[in-house]
Amino acid sequence: MKLPQLVQTQFLSVHDAATVIHKIGLETVFKRMAEYIRADYLRWHDFEKCARVANHSEDGVIELMPISDAKSYAFKYVNGHPKNTLSGLPCVMAFGVLADVATGIPEFLSELTLSTALRTAAMSAVAAQELARPDSKSMALIGNGAQSEFQALAFHYLLGIEEIRLFDTDPKATEKLIANLRSTNLRLTVCSSIAQAVRGADIVTTVTADKTNAAILTADLIEPGMHINGVGGDCPGKTELHPDVLRRSAVFVEYEPQTRIEGDLQHLPADFAVTELWQVLARQAPGRRAADQITLFDSVGFALQDYSALRFMRDAARELGMGQPVSLIPELVNPKDLFVLIHPDTHATQEPQWDKAGQHAVASALANALSVPA
User: Environment class of residue 233 by beta-carbon count within 10 Å: exposed (0-12), middle (13-18) or buried (19+)?
Assistant: First the structure.
C-alpha cells in the first residue's frame, strides 16, 4: 500500500539562525523584525491571547508562551535562571514552534535564544519610536549582560542613538559590551554609578537579571522628557523601578493582564492607569503628548513578539535556503494505527528509506544546534 506524503518540520538551529543574521546583516534584521512586530500588533484583535504559564523555583523560572490566530499557533519555551552564568550557561534559553491551526502540524521549529534577544530589542525600539522624543541621541544602559548589545544596536539602527552610557555592577560585563561594539559608530561612555549614567540621558534602558524586587532606578534620577525602557522586570517578585518612577510617568505595556502580574506595575494598585502599546501603534491612543513628558515602557515580553520572531526567522531562512527538515510526525498507512510503529513484526522488517533520511537529518540538526559560533 502506498504510504501518505511524509510530514516534515523545518528546523532552524542556533548555528543556522546566526548564519541567517550574518547573511542579512544585523541592521536589516532589526528593521525587518520591527516591521513584523508592527504588522502583528496592528492585528491585535485577530489573536487569542493569554498571560504566559510560569513554573517558578528558588533559582529561576521556566515559562511557556502561547498565542494563535485563525491560521497559525505559536509557542515559546523559555527559562530565566540568573545563576546559570556561574556554571557557564546562559541565563535565558529558548526554542519555539509555529504550527498550522487547521491540522496541528508543527511546521517550523526554531531556536529562540538568539531570536528572543533580537525581538526583545526590536520591541523596545518600536515602543521608543512612539514614546521617546524624536530628537533623542543618548541612552543610559543599566545592566550590560547578554541583552545589552542588542538593545544598544536596535536603538542605534532604529532611532539614531549615538551615545550609550554604560553601568553594571560587574565591570567585566561592561568590558564585554565595549569589546563587542568597538567596531560600531556608537560613543560608549563607562559610568561609575547609575546616577552618572542616567544624568542628562534622553532614554534610560534597564535590563538587569537578578530575580529580586529591586529599585535600581528611583524617582529622583528621572528628568523631564526622558523615556524609560524597563526590560529586566519580567516575573512576580522581580522588579527594577521604584513605584514612584511609574507614578511620575505615562506607562505603556504590551498586554496589561500579564504586566500587572510580572512587570514593575506589580507594585501598583489594579486601577493605576496604563495604555497597551497596540493602541498607540493603531492610533487609537496617544503616545508621547509633550516634549517634557516622562514616558515608560514596562516591558515583560509577550508571546505576540515571539510569533513575529518565528515568522521572520522562518521567512528569512526560506529566502536563504537555511535550516533542514526533520521528521517529528510518524508516517502511517492507517492513521488510527500508531502501535504498528513498535509492533514486533513491523520492527523486524526493513527500515523505510525515509526513516533513515529523517534520522540523519535529526542527527545533523542536533549537531549543528550544539555548534554555536563564537
Answer: buried
